[in-house]
Amino acid sequence: MVGATVAFLVGILCLSSGLSSGTSGFLLSTALEFTSRILYVVRAINKNELSLNSVQRIIQYSTEVEVEEPHCDRKDPPAHWPDSGRIEFDNYSAKYAEDGEDVLHELSLSIKPSEKIGIVGPSGCGKSTLSLALLRFILTSNGSINIDGRALSDTNLDAIRSRLTLVPQDPTLFSGTLRSNLDPHGAQDDSVLWAALKRSGFARAGGDSGDEAAEVGLDSEVASGGSNFSQGQRQLVGLARALVRSSKVIIMDEATASLDDESDKLVQRVIREEFEGCTNLTVAHRLETVIDFDRILVLRAGRVVEFDTPLALLDKQDGTFREMVEATGNFDALRRAAGGGESGSGREQ
């Protein structure tokens, strides 16, 4: 509409001014291009604004975002740390920001080496926050966390995050190969990586899904986000990563919440068989996932409500964990599973 109006006005001016036909034609063709010129200017201005937004974000990230503490040689732990996996929370409280409120409150508990701990509670109770606290992703406001006698606050972040292993609900896979996803730094032999894939059950799970999967190897392609694998297979790759790292402390943050029953059983078998010598903290959505663990930690609003063996908690009248199990409608079956797990979980501490 604007371009047509401009062309009309230019035509009237050409006629009234008695310009030559060549000059009038040139002016009219230029007027007809007016709209495209205006659009080009608008696009250029918009692109410039977007570019300036990017610059603004870069400046914000470089000047306003809090930077984690730098590496300090004095805080390097011994090469063998952690060697047993004993975890102690001593009146520990934590928050997400310096000016924020505590999200974990005065946690005091001790976890023995190689113990399997199920962490349960309602949504927002602090289960995943506890996992973040172990990796020092949140701020300590009081107390301490000690692993094998060493305070995490006196340990470099890179040491903590390289020697403790977190298996999240949805493992992040990068485009490349299985080899690069299992060992990004190329520090392990192929034999170690392949053994981890076999122990995790990934090769067996792949072999059951078709000829292409049956030929899985370390050079098998991984699409961005692992989109060429099922959710269960991605989770098995996450477990294989944990096996490659050989950590003494394994944190499972609702690792099976989005899996179907068959995949969940496979992952649970791998956890019980392959991480037997590790201290295992499992944040659970399904109670049957942790009902046969050594002990159950029940959280509510960032506080410890109960912490005992599954059978002890189920026998506790009006107990929080008992109420949660009763709400599933499978109390008897879960109690039998808890009894079987407790009888078979005895170990020297």
Automatic annotation (TrEMBL):
<protein>
    <recommendedName>
        <fullName>ABC transporter domain-containing protein</fullName>
    </recommendedName>
</protein>
<dbReference type="GO" id="GO:0042626">
    <property type="term" value="F:ATPase-coupled transmembrane transporter activity"/>
</dbReference>
<dbReference type="InterPro" id="IPR003593">
    <property type="entry name" value="AAA+_ATPase"/>
</dbReference>
<keyword id="KW-1133">Transmembrane helix</keyword>
<dbReference type="InterPro" id="IPR003439">
    <property type="entry name" value="ABC_transporter-like_ATP-bd"/>
</dbReference>
<dbReference type="GO" id="GO:0005524">
    <property type="term" value="F:ATP binding"/>
</dbReference>
<keyword id="KW-0067">ATP-binding</keyword>
<keyword id="KW-0812">Transmembrane</keyword>
<dbReference type="GO" id="GO:0016887">
    <property type="term" value="F:ATP hydrolysis activity"/>
</dbReference>
<keyword id="KW-0472">Membrane</keyword>
<dbReference type="Pfam" id="PF00005">
    <property type="entry name" value="ABC_tran"/>
</dbReference>
<dbReference type="InterPro" id="IPR017871">
    <property type="entry name" value="ABC_transporter-like_CS"/>
</dbReference>
<keyword id="KW-0732">Signal</keyword>
<keyword id="KW-0813">Transport</keyword>
<dbReference type="InterPro" id="IPR050173">
    <property type="entry name" value="ABC_transporter_C-like"/>
</dbReference>
<feature type="signal peptide">
    <location>
        <begin position="1"/>
        <end position="22"/>
    </location>
</feature>
<dbReference type="InterPro" id="IPR027417">
    <property type="entry name" value="P-loop_NTPase"/>
</dbReference>
<keyword id="KW-0547">Nucleotide-binding</keyword>
<dbReference type="GO" id="GO:0016020">
    <property type="term" value="C:membrane"/>
</dbReference>
<feature type="domain" description="ABC transporter">
    <location>
        <begin position="87"/>
        <end position="326"/>
    </location>
</feature>
